[in-house]
Design a protein that fits this description.
- A four-stranded antiparallel beta sheet has the order 2-1-3-4, covered by helices on one side.
- It is built from one helix and four strands; from the N terminus they run E-E-H-E-E.
- It has 68 residues and is mainly beta.
- Helix content is 13%, strand content 49%.
């Protein structure tokens, strides 16, 4: 199963989306059509896969709006 976390620069909370059956399904549901960060801030979408050994980070998409 695939899960996606969304974290925003300057905020301590994050969102968890999923489970999805594939990375493509997760991308369609969470990042399709997104072309800037939440509220114009740096926003990072991190993709994880659950495996028998635990959680494995697959990669991320980072939108660098208004970053220094």
């Amino acid at each position: 199963m695939i899960f996606i976390t969304v974290s925003q620069r300057g905020y301590s909370d994050s969102e968890l989306h999923g489970p999805f059956t594939s990375v493509d399904e997760g991308k369609q549901n969470v990042t399709d059509g997104v072309d800037r960060g939440n509220d114009g801030d740096e926003t990072k979408y991190t993709f994880f896969e659950t495996t028998p050994e635990g959680m494995k980070e697959l990669g991320y998409v980072q939108l660098d709006d208004e970053c220094e």
